[in-house]
Write a structure and sequence with these properties.
It catalyses: ATP + H2O + polyamine-[polyamine-binding protein]Side 1 = ADP + phosphate + polyamineSide 2 + [polyamine-binding protein]Side 1. This is Spermidine/putrescine import ATP-binding protein PotA. Its EC number is 7.6.2.11. GO terms for molecular function: ATP binding. The protein is α+β, with helices and mostly antiparallel strands. It folds into two domains: 231 residues, Rossmann fold (3-Layer(aba) Sandwich), CATH 3.40.50.300; 104 residues, OB fold (Dihydrolipoamide Acetyltransferase, E2P) (Beta Barrel), CATH 2.40.50. Helices cover 24% and strands 34% of the residues. The chain contains eight helices and 20 strands. Strands 6-7-8-3-9-10 form a six-stranded mixed β-sheet, sandwiched between helices. Helix 5 links the parallel strand 7 and strand 8. Helix 2 crosses helix 3. The chain starts with 6 loop residues before the first strand and ends with a strand.
Length: 349
């Protein structure tokens, strides 16, 4: 539909207020978003992701730094002069207008000729699979249908970048999963650069080509979903993306010591105190293993069994087994094997 436009955020900072009460919402953030990609800003509430999205849209101006679309510096441009559209969490549709008139509203404001406007609206409704609802008032639509209309309206002016501010948060779980697939399909078919904001790690892992994990106004790690999940850069990322066990260890002679037990490492690590991170699904139950634990609780999750256990030194550890496995009893002792390839050594807090 349009040329793939890269986005460059160059050392952007944003401070709200002055003096002792000032808040640094963003601190020296630099990002390169590849043109035609699905890029996600992921993090907890208050991490700065929505502020960064507002800088891209032009609703806020950075205190320092620049925003570029391709080779065009848009830092000082108002929203209406940027080739960017935004889909908001609330959708912001006109309830008294039909689906078609909602989608064509922005085109009408641009003065596009009627025949061209109608053709564009038809094409957008076909893209989001809502052509059969063109004459229906949006007030009569479900939440998922309204979201599709909001997407069609945002795509109709053929922006070079589409910003999505947690647009799935109001949907129920089943519909949210369906719309994750639909959003990725729309991004592929249009070729537009999508920048998506969410606090939901599953959304980010499902849809994104690349993810920027944010915390306290800074980017903690940038990478593909697989890179971020399998190779977290620090404890925050390891804890925020999926579940992780964090075990205090001492590194010596190429091994990590948990109490009296030595765990082999696949990569060298400096000597001293550190934190061993491992996902619950990567821990293996092995009767021959010398690391033992006592089961304190089990939870049936449908597709898996979550086991909580306590090591001999009192450290708590979680592991996940396939649903077909027998549920062990509380108080039972089991041997645990930590595969070296699944271990990440992090600096202690």
């Amino acid at each position: 539909m349009t040329d793939a436009t890269p986005v460059f955020i160059d050392a952007a900072s944003k401070r709200f207020g002055r003096g002792p009460g000032a808040v640094d919402a963003l601190q020296d953030v630099s990002l390169t978003i590849e043109g035609g990609s699905f890029f996600t800003l992921l993090g907890p509430s208050g991490c700065g992701k929505t502020t960064l999205l507002r800088l891209l849209a032009g609703f806020e101006t950075p205190t320092h730094g620049r925003i570029l679309l391709g080779d065009q510096d848009v830092t000082a441009l108002p929203p209406n002069r940027r080739p960017i559209n935004t889909v908001f969490q609330s959708y912001a549709l006109f309830p008294h207008l039909t689906v078609a008139r909602n989608v064509g509203f922005g085109l009408k404001m641009q003065g596009i000729a009627r025949a061209q406007l109608d053709a564009r609206v038809d094409r957008m409704l076909a893209l989001v699979r809502m052509q059969d609802f063109a004459d229906r008032p949006v007030a009569q639509l479900s939440g998922g249908q309204q979201q599709r209309v909001a997407l069609a309206r945002a795509l109709a002016p053929e922006p070079r970048v589409l910003l999505l501010d947690e647009p799935l948060s109001a949907l129920d779980l089943k519909l949210r999963k369906e719309m994750q697939i639909e959003l990725k399909r729309l991004q592929r078919e249009t070729g537009i650069t999508f920048v998506f904001v969410t606090h939901d790690q599953e959304e980010a892992l499902t849809m994104s080509d690349r993810i920027a994990v944010m915390s306290a106004g800074r980017v903690q790690q940038i990478g593909t979903p697989r890179e971020i999940y399998a190779h977290p850069a620090n404890r925050f990322v390891a804890g925020f993306i999926g579940e992780s066990n964090f075990l205090p260890v001492t590194i010596a002679d190429g091994a990590a010591r948990i109490g009296d037990h030595a765990v082999t490492l696949s990569a060298p690590a400096g000597p001293g105190k550190a934190t061993l991170a491992i996902r619950p699904e990567d821990i293996l139950v092995d009767p021959a293993a010398t690391l033992s634990a006592e089961i304190t609780d089990t939870v049936y999750l449908g597709n898996a069994v979550q086991i909580m256990a306590r090591l001999d030194d009192g450290t708590r550890i979680a592991l996940r087994q396939p649903a077909g496995a027998d549920l062990p009893a509380n108080g039972q002792r089991i041997g645990l094997r930590l595969p070296p390839a699944a271990i990440r050594i992090l600096e202690p807090e």
